[in-house]
Amino acid sequence: MFIGSNLECVRTLNGYSRKELAEKVSVSEQAIWQYEVKNMMPEINKIYELSNLFNVQTSYFISDQPKILKEKSVEKQTIAFRAVSYKVSTKLLNKQHYQANYVSNLTNYLLAYVKSPLMEIKALIDELDDLIESLEDLDRIKIIKKCASISRKKLLGNCSNNHLLFNLEKSGIMIFEKNIDNDADAFSFWSNREIPYIILGNNKGIAVRRNFDIAHELCHILLHRHIQFDNLSQAEYKQLENEANIFAAEFLLPEAEFIEDFNKLTKKSNPDHMKILKEKWFVSIQSIELRAYYLGLLTETQNRYFWESVNKKGYRRKEPLDEEIKLSKPVKINSLLDFYFKEKVMTPEFLLNDLKVSPKFLNEIANIDTRLIDKYMDVESDKERNVISHLFK
């Protein structure tokens, strides 16, 4: 029997409307509706087409998924988008909601095999909640800065910003990297199981910009977790984004130490002279200038000269050291799978057959390394070949 809900799930995961999918596989929109709603069995060649299009096994369409993957584990209203504009398209938001839900369910599926450690991030949230309550009469911006300062001490300690992603993964935040959209840099959310997630876009490929995205999303996770993001006015959205930007600036470039560093520069309005600070803080030259300007370390004239230089040198798109500074990548899920495969908790074959997907599917949805799967599948294949060869000795 064809399971139409599985087709609907994988279609929405990939952001296709019924009409768009119909055009892809050369059937009518009504046929797609019949597959999904009436569980009508497509022709066998269409099942293969759907399988290839979505990188799933043909059995995906005729077998039940593990129960845990069917849960509604993420509410759309909890998703905080870091996007170019206030109005993220409904289609894009729906796609990311479905993908957030799948990533959350996949995480729950994988974590079911281990005892999850206590999350440091929750202890930090409790501390910040108490702080905010005690400072409720203080200016909101000052509260944001205070929270950023405490968060840096707790999460980074004496480590540099280059360790930010790794330290957040250690703290209990699940971080994934995937292709989002040209108009969106990252998004974050809390699942119904109270696990925080950050999803990073992989379209920038620039380490220092990624650090700002991470710090920005960290603010949403720590301070905006009760906000209904799908019901904000434009003014409310801008206020929250401004708070996240202020938090990120204070977190990545702590005021006192940054002022001391910046004042050592001989030519403060020359972007090339800021490379030394970029190397230390792993933050873009443009973010460094903005931080300095808002702290009153640059005049209006110096600010104008800086941006004229940036435009003239083409630094808006690519800055000095962008190619030299290595891009940090999430490692937790790949490390967990490496452990599972190595210790025989599960095999790659079991994982793929239980989920009824291909390695490429897992790579696209959760950036699971296909080389990791290939490595352990090759080991199992070698063992099988050895067993067979021994029969002929």
Automatic annotation (TrEMBL):
It comes from Mammaliicoccus sciuri. Gene3D superfamilies: 1.10.10.2910, lambda repressor-like DNA-binding domains. Belongs to the short-chain fatty acyl-CoA assimilation regulator (ScfR) family. This is ImmA/IrrE family metallo-endopeptidase. InterPro entries: Cro/C1-type_HTH, IrrE_HExxH, Lambda_DNA-bd_dom_sf, Rad_response_metalloprotease. Residues 11-61 form the HTH cro/C1-type domain. It comes from the Bacteria. One of its GO terms (molecular function) is DNA binding.
